[in-house]
Amino acid sequence: MKLKYFPILLVGISALLFVGCKKDDPIVTGGTNGTDTVKTFSIPTYADDYSSISSWSNRDNWNLANVHDPSVAYYNGYYYMYGTDASYGNAAEGHGHFQGKRSKDLVNWDWVGGPFYNPPTWVADSLNAIRTRMGLSAIAKSNIQYGYWAPVVRKVTVGGKDILRMYYSIVIFNYIKTGKANTTANFDGSWTERAFIGVCESTDPAGAVWIDKGFVTSSSSDRGTDYSRANTSDWSAYFYYNAIDPTYIVAPDGKHYLIHGSWHSGFALLQLDPTSGKPLNKLGNPWASTTSDLASRYGVRIGTRTASSRWQGSEAPEVIYKDGYYYLFMAYDGLDVPYNTRVVRSTNIEGPYLDITGRSFTNGDGDSYPIVTHPYKFNLSNGWVGISHCCVFQKQNTNEWFLMSQGRLPANVGGNASSNALMMGHVRRLVWCPASTSEPNNLWPIALPERYAAVPDYGTITKDSLTGTWEHINLKYSYGAQDIATALTLNANGTMSGALTGSWSYDAAKKQLTLGNVVVCVEREVDWEATPRRVTIVYAGTEKNLNATYWGKKKK
């Protein structure tokens, strides 16, 4: 389960700043160069600290505030985004669950609301039906403690009609043995209750009209009905599969799959009926005496961070298919600060999923690389932490891929002791980077360091435009710590000084900058830390033996 549940976010969007650009000039100053026409666009000016507009009455002004565990799907001309309930400065309960927004440009987002205001009745009914089969007393519906987490949304075609299909997680916190509320005083020597995944569908998401289809799956155990827990520090986990954090994919062969899991023994792959969206095969009781018996009904385990542990910091699988590979993105560690994103891939949806070094995530061979996002800090900013639980999607009618997640502010920003509960939605472009200089076609997805702002194409990024001073971040794994930018100078003679030494080179046609033996991809994005914000050049990339990612931003 999620280790903590934080109150969350909100924000407003202000006036827009118009800027222009000279060709090959990373700092947009306006004007033209020769016969080139300078394009103008609006750089977002909204504040990352949205605490001043955090009340529910300001939700139409939130834009990308109040975003947690987002999922995005394109439908009828808009990108629709839904996520975990969040409530920095206001009460989420009663305001609708899995709050939604929509956008045409992935920059400006409008509020649309969520699918329901109260927990669907099937959740309590399913819970108590399971408890009855386990020989336990029913829990009164009024005493059930609910949590609402991490939906996934996809456009699918059913019966010749395009619909949005959403899988959502509802967690029950009551203790299994007595059904009492989850408090230290009530601890009864048992684990807390299971999570459920349900499904709903819509042809009118703009009107927040959704039809709930009910139960899909639940947390399941390979320990029979032995739900005993030694103490509250026991993390050996009764449940083998934890039914939260679903992702959903339609494979190239037309088969539909649900993938889910968080913190327990790994990620489960469950095949679905395309028409109903429900499991293709009968699940039966959500407990078994052996892991193999359970997996045969509740899903194949396709990955685990550590094979020997039933309690591990990995969750939030997200699977896409591209160029013959299934790419599996996942979140590592606790969600408040250390959250970071990794990616593995396989040619088969059931695995094995391997990292960039060939290490098997399916077998639980240890930490996987590359790092896709990690807590970081550029100069002139507080930086960001808790950057994970992502969705990955392709921009409509383009070859551009995007990653969206929340980003949290560090603690005590602006004297606000609760600033770490402020979560902004971060949309970043993915670049596909070579695994090494000797493997130019072995491409892996890495997120750009700066958030997406729809910077126009100002033409070729030239070698001359790369010379000068950069803020370089060695994005390496450091639990609970931000990776801090240091100065890097790319000299005109092809040498480097500062954060890196040696030589550099550049392939303008591929937009690939080689820093020593690491190839990074170069793009234009907005410098979100500058005052005022402006266009600059950024890079991102990795190397198969680096166990880290390079992020960089060109200084003025």
Blueprint of the fold:
Layout: E1 17-19, E2 41-43, E3 71-75, E4 78-82, E5 100-103, E6 110-111, H1 121-133, E7 146-158, E8 161-172, E9 195-204, E10 209-218, E11 247-250, E12 256-260, E13 267-272, H2 291-298, E14 300-303, E15 314-322, E16 325-332, E17 340-346, E18 371-373, E19 376-377, E20 391-394, E21 401-408, E22 423-436, E23 439-447, E24 468-476, E25 483-484, E26 486-490, E27 495-498, E28 502-507, E29 512-515, E30 518-527, E31 534-542, E32 548-554
Parallel strand pairs: 19-25
Antiparallel strand pairs: 1-2, 3-4, 4-5, 5-6, 7-8, 8-9, 9-10, 11-12, 12-13, 13-14, 15-16, 16-17, 17-18, 20-21, 21-22, 22-23, 24-26, 24-32, 26-27, 27-28, 28-29, 29-30, 30-31, 31-32
